[in-house]
Model the fold of this input.
Amino acid sequence: MAATTTAFNSLLQTLQTDFPRITYCVGDDFHWSPSARTVYFRAKSTDMATLLHETAHALLGHTSYNRDIDLVHLERDAWSKTVELGTRYGVNIDNETVETALDTYRDWLHARSLCPKCRQNGVQTAENTYTCVICSQKWIVNDARSCGLKRRKIN
Ligand SMILES: [Zn+2]
Ligand SMILES: [Zn+2]
Done:
């Protein structure tokens, strides 16, 4: 199936028919909103892999996560479901797409867990809070994955 908006729109229609409990809606970017039970997608997109990926989150009932490492696990699950959906709907999801996406989350996790003072890996002690095991520095991270990483030292 060629990556055209026509192919994208017909996949979208098929998904809406097959999964009537999920709402599909145009948004600024692709994401799954558990509270609205809605998969948002970009208008005029051709990215069928991402559409299937957000659908996978919806089908798996993914809601929120408490620890960053959980997010990486959720993403891994969502991607294996995406591959499954790809087979079902004739969308080729290659390994590289999956690995690149998972690497992004691994890099994100790594960056968040680095101590801003001594650059060692810290442990997450609460939602958005890390503590360094070497120097005991604590820091807060923002939770917006798409808005860039911010680390702020706290005492
Ligand atoms: Zn995801
Ligand atoms: Zn440290």
